[in-house]
Amino acid sequence: MTAHANYSLRDEIRDYWSDRAETFDLQVGHEIFSERERAAWHALITKHLGPGARRAALDLACGTGVISHLMHDLGFVVTGLDWSEAMLAKARAKAQKRGADIRFIVRDAERTLEDRASYDVIVTRHLVWTLVDPKTAFAEWCSLLVIDGDFVSRNWAMGLRELWEKLTAGKSRVLGSGGPPMARRHQSILARVYFSGGARAEEIVRLLAEAGLEQPVVDWKLGAIHRAQARQMSWPKALERVTQHRFAICATKPQ
Questions:
Q1: Does residue 223 surpass a pLDDT of 50?
Q2: I need a labelling partner for 19 at 20 to 30 A (CA). Which of 50, 123, 184, 254 fits?
Q3: How far is the CA of 126 from the CAs of 2, 29, 169, 235, in angstroms?
């Protein structure tokens, strides 16, 4: 793939998520809809990154700022980075409403142009599966926490959820997904990113190690988050959520 083609795909990814910005927070798994889920996220972040203690944190592909605010809650000094102005507009509005001093900037998460020494930790949720060039991105990133998953590979729970949606004439579909046109755009993008076959933890660990990040640790224990989310979902969607290949990976890079 040529550099021009890479740029075009990355540009397409940015435009897709910009078009999703208006309804992004309507979807469970994007925004947080209960204090139970918020507490579960706080526990996961603290488990791997420790207390904020005014340490500088960079939230890559921050979207509407959900993780940025979780980090801010815990005492980190947070910069949220995203390539979509539409997403950042939502993030800034949230920060203003909450009185949270979070800095939001327009950047490409694969080429941040930020000084690595300016940040103590990096956190990213549901970004890695969209990367065009993860090897280059990982080489730039410092100590980090990745929350991601394989949202591509099919399992029995996905088939059950799809059957249930057909039988209920689509009434169960999640608000904010954008319908068939957005689904087609999503599939077109997915077919061309690095993890087109699904982002698996073992492959991400291998790439992180190659990029110089030491002792990547995979945490599969996201049950508290998923159980809290399940309370806001239809039962087939909740079942699919808890059976997916979802994980957190924590890794460090020597200074």
A1: yes
A2: 123
A3: 25, 10, 29, 23
